[in-house]
Design brief:
The complex is a heterodimer of chains A (288) and B (412).
Chain A (H helix, E strand, L loop, with lengths): L1 H31 L7 H17 L4 H22 L8 H23 L12 E4 L2 E4 H23 L1 H11 L1 H6 L4 H23 L11 H14 L3 H23 L1 H18 L4 H9 L1
Antiparallel strand pairs in A: 1-2
Helix pairs in contact in A: 1-5, 1-8, 1-9, 1-10, 2-3, 2-8, 2-9, 3-8, 5-6, 6-8, 9-10, 9-11, 10-11, 10-12
Chain B lengths: L2 H24 L4 E6 L7 H20 L8 E6 L5 H14 L4 E4 L3 H12 L5 E3 L7 E2 L3 E3 L4 H16 L2 E7 L2 H17 L2 E8 L7 H10 L3 E5 L2 H13 L6 E3 L8 H4 L8 E5 L8 H13 L8 H20 L4 H9 L4 E4 L2 E4 L9 E8 L5 E10 L3 H5 L10 E2 L10
Parallel strand pairs in B: 1-2, 1-3, 3-4, 4-6, 7-8, 7-9, 9-10, 10-11
Antiparallel strand pairs in B: 5-16, 11-14, 12-13, 14-15
Helix pairs in contact in B: 2-11, 3-4, 5-6, 11-12
The chains are: A mainly alpha (288), B alpha/beta (412).
Amino acid sequence: MSAELFSLFYQFADVFAFLILSAAGLAIVFGMMGVINMAHGEFIMCGAYVTVGLVNLGVPLPIAQILATLTAGIIGMIVEYLIVRRFYKRPLDSLLATWGLSLIVTQSMLLIVGSAVRGIGTPEGSFAIGGYTFSTYRLVLFGCAVAVLAGLYIIFMKTRFGVIARATMQNAAMAKALGARTGRIYSISFGIGTALAGLCGALYAPTMTLIPTMGATFVVESFVTVVIGGANVLLGTAPAAVFLAMIRMALNAGYGQIIGQIGMLFAVILIIRVLPEGLSSVLVRRGR
Amino acid sequence: MNSGRIVGMALLGAVLGTAVIGAAQAADPPLKVGLLEDVSGDLAFMGMPKLHGSQLAVEEINKSGGILGRQIELIHLDPQGDNARYQEFGRRLLNRDKVDVLIGGITSASREALRPIVDRTTTPYFYTNQYEGGVCDASMVSMGAVPEQQFSTLIPWMVQKFGKKVYVIAADYNFGQISAEWNRKIMKDLGGEVVGEEFIPLGVSQFAQTIQNIQKAKPDWLLTINVGAAQDSFFEQAAAANLNLPMGSSIKVMLGFEHKRFKPPALNNMHATANWFEEIDTPEANDFKKRWHAKFPDELYINDMGYNAYNALYMYKALVEKAKSTKLEDMRKVIATGDACIDAPEGKVCIDPKSQHTSHRMRLISVGPKHEVTVEKDYGTIQPYWLGEIGCDLTKKNDKDQYTPSHLPSKS
């Protein structure tokens, strides 16, 4: 019995971690900043490739993952400076620009790195409960997802940077008039967003096949999580992930992966229909 | 003489020159080979060797004088794993470029998308993958292995060696569904039991739940017919969770070279039946591998699709030269004699007149903990007999249909 219970928790944690880690970066870039970043998956791919490349050079996995996260963040800030900055007032054009970027990056990676890279293997460690065996690393992923949520909350709710950042996102002109350096705020926020995407790739790199289009497997989940999370990213993303993870876990377990995926997307449609402002609209109203 | 006239003369000369060269070539225009293979998108890692195999064969054939004295012009388009693009590019090659032969397609979905378009023309089409079998279509020649060559060998061996309970993980499209049907049929004949079947949408990369479903069902072995880079993540995740079950497949190792792409021991205890895998150690195979790696030194693995793609051009050459024609109907007369054979690196392979599928020398291979590949059993040459047995006979009737164990030709 306890094995079954733990198994339920493990499956929930697994889906939850996947949703949170793939959505966290997008929650900032799309949810807060309003940039429809179609290249989100490519920042995830960047994190994964840098991780694997560094591990193959002999760097220990955790350090490689941290460096990959930083790399994705720095590349994100460069992309923000060169491209995204010009599209803050034109969200639909940002969609085209970042989509183009995504195509250029995946094709370039295919040409430069090749169509497949040898994996590095998941860190050793599994444990058994009842008749089941579990991979320890999947629980590490869950821990990382919770840490990412806590970190985001602290950065955006408890620090001076967070207050200014939120003010900038709400009313850039007013924030600027009050002396906030909004350009820098945008740049740093975008960098944090892409760094989190890179972290997602870095964390999942050992468990997956690396191909240039791997980012695409994360993109649908990340967008739906952010969208049903709603306008208030910090309050919305976590419950959205909990909700979707529950649905997907239950359907996966009972009816298999196809129904799991269909059911999750169906729930997304329902929520957008009933709560166009997303889950956070309910939470914020209650909070007042 | 002013400069304008000089330019005019030069242009005239150039035009005349081109016309002369054109006339010389018109006597012997090159044969156009249309090739549709994914070299970008999710299946690029499998499609790249297919393009390379075709390029190698074209280069070799052209160097040794071409086909009936005509050079081959290879026109490759990249459909990027998109079935709509397969159709668009297929039409372009057939109707605009007027290719003499069409080759290619990776997934069975892309083949079925192309086939109706090919059927409206009189152009022969070569499909170069192993697949779930059953296509009875006079326009199509299948170069890869089919279930009677792969599953009728592998599944009884797995049952005998590991036990009667199997769990199936399959990609959710025609290949996975029909392959799973084959497994059900063969397991039933053997008195075995399918304790679970899970169909996975393409692009799914997370398998924690699947791994637990498997542990709950307690199978003796797994049949893994998952497709694509995302679904291949299953192996890494199963190894991390210490699932540790024997596995069998018709597409792993020799096709997806997972044993080269994953860190050992993720593919440990995987078994497959194949007509080609790079580890084949015969003089002909070694010579072929040497030529391939000389042209493509960066190739990670020469997979069976790439190998079949290479053979397809030689088979086309053999058919055209025996028929002394590039017309499909003349080539099919050669096939009907049962004499359409080539000496391939695996040995002699022939096209079966009834089904237009290819006989193959099949071997059962297994992967060890360090991802070393060993040959467990050599079945010799196996004919693609199933379609003929159920009543497909392309020498008499063109069904243009795909049959499965549950969809047999109606008895007339």
